[in-house]
Design brief:
With about 260 residues, the chain is mainly beta. The chain folds into two domains: about 120 residues, Immunoglobulin-like (Sandwich); about 100 residues, Immunoglobulins (Immunoglobulin-like), CATH 2.60.40. The protein is built from one helix and 19 strands. Strands 1, 3, 4, 6 and 8 form a five-stranded antiparallel sheet that branches.
């Protein structure tokens, strides 16, 4: 009879096969048995393929000179991680800023050669050179004096994603500009307010958006003039009406006295 030993292995699972340079991707490392492990559960005997006993030190590496693993997004680089006793897998994150086809690899530390089989996966890193797309810039209501003027804009980026959207406005004919960060209000929609302005003020405005790769897009400059709310006309009308009534009453009294 010939006995064949099929060693357990570490399995590398990358969340996606390609990513933008400067982006993070989730990586899961599992330890499994190629033959399965007999497990007694209550009155049943089952065969599982995952291993959860003992601490296992896993070595992490990449063929990219700019790539590294970390325990968290934005964390410090690591070159090994522990699958702890009672766990069958561990999750880490990978970052790379170098474009090209790279290979991520995992191996096992503290075991004799050939006892644990490692794994590797290809990963394509591409550079995002396309700026965000800005559309549907509009005012949510008429620009009236003493009222904030709300703007809405749709921004999308199929590459590295939208990082920041800013509304610029000027009340000096473009000599100086003020900026207001536009906040997300839904899927791809951003909003911001221009502070209340005096009546008949001419306001210039434009929107600029950046993605995580540093690409930027900007709309042409447009302008509007701050108007007068309808209540102002009503106050003027009532004031004129009152003044007319008072004037008529004075004239009537004078005419009565002369009589």
């Amino acid at each position: 009879m010939t006995l064949v030993f099929r060693p357990p292995r570490v399995d590398l699972v990358v969340e996606k096969t390609s990513l933008m340079a400067g982006e993070w991707v989730k990586v899961t490392v599992k330890r499994v048995s190629q033959d399965g492990i007999i497990v007694h559960t209550a009155d049943r005997i089952i065969k599982k393929d995952w291993i959860s006993r003992g601490n296992l030190i896993v070595k992490l590496s990449s063929s990219s000179s700019e790539g590294f693993f970390s325990l968290t997004k934005g964390g410090d680089p690591i070159d090994e991680v522990v699958i702890s006793d009672g766990s069958a897998q561990v999750t880490v994150y990978y970052y790379d800023s170098a474009a090209g086809e790279h290979v991520l690899s995992v191996g096992v530390k503290s075991y004799p050669p050939g006892y644990y089989v490692g794994d590797s996966e290809p990963l394509l890193v591409v550079v995002d050179t396309t700026p965000p797309t800005i559309s549907s810039v509009r005012m949510l209501g008429p620009p009236l004096m003493s009222e904030p003027i709300r703007f809405s804009v749709s921004v999308s980026d199929e590459g590295s994603g939208v990082m920041r959207v800013t509304l610029y406005y000027s009340t000096s004919g473009g000599e100086t500009w003020n900026e207001v960060e536009m906040l997300p209000k839904g899927e791809g929609v951003y909003e911001a307010d221009v502070p209340p302005q005096r009546v008949f003020t001419e306001v210039l405005y434009r929107v600029k958006a950046w993605d995580f790769a540093g690409n930027a897009a900007e709309t042409p400059t447009k302008r509007f003039t701050v108007g007068v709310p309808s209540w102002v006309y009503m106050v003027i009308f009532i004031s004129i009406a009152i003044a007319g009534s008072v004037g008529a009453l004075i004239l009537k009294r004078r005419h009565y006295k002369k009589s």
